[in-house]
Design goal:
The protein is of the alpha+beta class. It has 2 helices and 6 strands; from the N terminus they run H-E-E-E-E-E-E-H. The chain is elongated and about 65 Å long.
Amino acid sequence: MAGTEEELQELTSKLETVSRKYRMEINKEKIKILVNRSNNHKHTNIWLNGQKLEEVETFKYHGSYICNDGNSGKEIKSRLAMASAAISRLNVIWKSKIYR
């Protein structure tokens, strides 16, 4: 996490330097930039190994959705869908005559 675009680029460059030192390869396909903004959106230009990193509006992190505008609507819908699916799977057990 960084407070400015310059700080984020500096952290990204440090990550690149350290990973190269330990002969580790960074999968650029999995790295995304999510900038938390409520207004005046401008695109962020962060580079890694000469490639511009993709900026996204929503990112799924450890099963939770994080949005760049702070809105949790997508996260709530996702959790409701998971709960509904779990209840549907349990209906088979609840309606079973074995447990009566």
